[in-house]
Fold Fe2OG dioxygenase domain-containing protein.
Amino acid sequence: MQSSSLSAQFKQRHATPKGLCRPGLFARFRRLALEADANATWGRLDANRLTTRTIELLQYHEPADSLGWHIDPQSAVTMLLMLSADGAYAGAALEHESDGVVHRARPTQHEALFYRSDQEHRVTPFESGTRVALALEWWHEQGVDLKHTFRNHRPFATGPSTCPR
Ligand SMILES: O=C(O)CCC(=O)C(=O)O
Ligand SMILES: [Fe+2]
């Protein structure tokens, strides 16, 4: 992945100051991933083995922080939780390509967007402001060849509104 100030990686479990611990957030994210996988009929995720391969806080501050077309290797499903408000940045839209058609997603603040990790995607050139998003890549502790389950798709959004717009 090309990056400059992008990508601080976090361990899944890390020390939490006493009294600030709020258990259950990871379990909620995990449930959302399973729900998205089921609702989108991808059938990729196994509730018995599912965990994160990476959790990344992505901060886009400058044009070099844009991401070219890529897949998220080894992961099964990627969850992108938008933390920035709509007006906080310009550019940096998330796009997926399917059969030569590009689908643009614009998750609003606190919306989560799910997509199959091997679906080609990119972040269009960042222009201004600050864009912060949390990316969780789900897998089953091993990279799998997902080609046999691959169908082109639009990214799948949870919540009352739909992210692609
Ligand atoms: O920031 C985004 O919208 C997507 C990030 C991404 O594709 C990645 O980190 O691999
Ligand atoms: Fe990605």
Remarks:
- The helical segments are 25-39.
- The chain has a mean pLDDT of 81.
- The longest helix spans residues 25-39.
